Amino acid sequence: MRENVKWRRILLSLRNYIVFFLLIAFIITCCMYLFLRTLQQTLGISYTEENIRAAAALTFANVIFLSFLCTVIDTVRRRLMVDRPVRRIVEGAEKLMKGDFSARIKPFRSIGGESGFDMIIDCFNRMAEELSGVETLRTDFIANVSHELKTPLSVIQNYSTMLQSPELSDGQRLDYAKAITEQSRRLADLVTNILKLNRLENQKIYPAAHKYDLGEQLAECLLRFEGIWEKKKIAIDTDIEDAVFVESDDELLSLVWNNLFSNALKFTEAGGTVSLSLTSEGDLAVVKVSDTGCGISQEVGRHIFEKFYQGDTSRATQGNGLGLALVRRVMDIVGGDISVESKVGKGSTFLVKIRRTTDG
Questions:
Q1: How far apart are CA 29 and CA 23, in angstroms?
Q2: 214 with 342, same domain?
Q3: Within 13 Å of residue 138, how many CA atoms lie on the same side as its CB?
Q4: Do 152 and 273 have their domain in common?
Q5: Which residues contact 277 (CB under 8 A, 6 or more apart)?
Q6: Is pLDDT larger for residue 162 or for residue 142?
Q7: 100, 129, 157: which is the final residue of a domain?
């Protein structure tokens, strides 16, 4: 391989020399012909055969020397200005192909300032940085998914094994069957949320926007959880302003409200209160979902919208840490904003802002 590269370089140098030789020979011949012809016509000088031979020999020697000099200069230029940056780029690309996403290429600064190779190197380094981040997310995602799948599967497996015992009472069999059903539902919800999040993150989503009454949608979504708040005896406090219209994708926004209501009811103890308010502030529709639950710390608040992050591990069996990641992604798609205010032991308030439209 190295021998082939060496011969290719020799042939390239020889080709360059021949090209320069022919080019310089042509230029010098034309220049000498014009010079001698003009001199002869102006001064009336005649040239002997001896004069012409001497001039031809000197000119030929000059052509050989100048061709060699230009070849050397061009070879050095190519080695420094072309071969070296190309070699750096190739080495970096080979590392990237082998899975080394930490590969970076040192910028090549030419004498005349930034060259075209520097632009390529800059794009390569940014690409490698993005790939590194994607690879980290992918690795973490796979690790988290594996963990989240393993937990309910282990529970299902254990209860299924215990159900095979002939000594179980009817009450125990019913309890174990309920546990299997609950974990199966959790597993199905996990897969559904993973598919939803993957679609929202990896596809170009164009919201199917249309104008509708946001208050009506909020009320409809909240009523779907009526069985939960009645079972836990949670008080529901609503303050929904009339005729607040938005022009957005109602299907995507329903994901937001369902997740926020679900979390509020999940983290609110029996006898607590969940509040919902909708107001218009300027050209914005502002939705607040508050609860009197356990609240979250500032540290948890900084990570709460990350995938699989669960601030309250005591309730980890009730969720999969994907709900708020879905909410954040939907907000990015529809051009809205979401934030959280919370105090440990006092509860949390999620604040959603969406651009509203004129009434009608």
A1: 10
A2: yes
A3: 8
A4: no
A5: 238, 239, 240, 286, 287, 288, 290
A6: 162
A7: 100
Here the tokens at position 169 are 């009472």
Domain that holds residue 41: 2-100
Q: Which residue has the higher pLDDT, 189 or 233?
A: 233
Average pLDDT over residues 68-80: 76
Q: Write down the pLDDT at residue 315.
A: 43
Residues 222-230 have a mean pLDDT of 88
Indicate the average pLDDT of the chain: 77
Give me the mean pLDDT over the 217-235 stretch: 90
Residues 321 and 279 in one domain: yes
Antiparallel, parallel or unpaired: β 273-281 and 235-240: parallel
Are 192 and 235 in the same domain? no
Find out whether 260 and 289 touch, Cβ atoms under 8 Å: yes
Q: Give yes or no: residues 163 and 285 share one domain.
A: no
78 φ/ψ sector (left φ>0, alpha ψ -120 to 50, else beta): alpha
Per the structure, how many domains does the chain have?
Answer: 3
- What are the backbone dihedrals phi and psi of residue 246, each rounded to the nearest 5 degrees, phi first? -130, 155
Residue 74 shares a structural domain with residue 152: no
Does 168 map to a domain?
A: yes
Question: What is the CATH classification number for the domain harbouring 197?
Answer: 1.10.287
pLDDT at position 115 over 70:
no
DSSP-derived 3-state class of residue 354:
strand
Residue 275 — φ and ψ, nearest 5°?
A: -115, 145
Exposure of 199 in the CB half-sphere (CA atoms within 13 A): 10
Among 154, 183, 202, the domain-final residue is: 202
List phi, psi (to 5°) of 265.
-70, -35
User: Which residues lie closer than 8 Å to 71 by C-beta, 6 or more apart?
Assistant: 13, 16, 17, 20
Q: Assess whether 318 and 262 both reside in one domain.
A: yes
Average pLDDT over residues 264-270: 89
- Judge whether 298 lies within some domain: yes
- Between the alpha carbon of residue 323 and those of residues 107, 115, 117, 121, 182, the distances in Å are 42, 47, 44, 39, 18
Q: pLDDT grade, residue 318 (50/70/90)? A: very low
If asked whether residues 218 and 198 sit together in one domain, one would say no
CATH number for position 346: 3.30.565.10
Q: Mention every residue, 6+ apart, whose C-beta is less than 8 A from residue 169.
A: none
Name the pTM for this structure: 0.50
